[in-house]
Write a structure and sequence with these properties.
Length: about 180
Amino acid sequence: MKPSSNNINYLNTQHTMENEVKKPIKKMMLILSKATLENVYACFILANGARMEGIESEIFFTFFGLEAIQKKKLQDLHVATVGNPAMHMPTILGGLPGVEALATKMMKADMEKLDIPPVDEFLDILSASGTKLWGCKLAIDMFKLKREDLIDDLDGILTVGGFYERAGGDGTHVLFI
């Protein structure tokens, strides 16, 4: 049986990938655009994991991700129950009164059992570990936020271009969460 050209291309790609020398990751640049509890923790855990491995990490908080660094909002983040396929429930149920609060309470309880710190403490840990925390200038202006509305550990406010300039070159990975 003659292999199809798709199979040959796949095999050639696999062979090429196996022969490439892997370059070490030097920096993780994470972009957080939504401050749902599950997105915030995914981002923070990735940034913290990078630091634990000796990899630089930076987080760029943009649009609704800014809620994770707003002093008045960061303690009240919720699990997204509507339109979240991982909830394994019909969207209409996710929108019922109390469902989001219950899901959030359950997730926070599970995270506490695993000794995962609350958002404010996690931000302190990240900052102390050397993770750079940046607010998006466009989103801050759009939502009419002031610097004093944001956490004290914020390293600054950058444009998108300023954030990308910080990425550097080889060994930098950018993730959008």
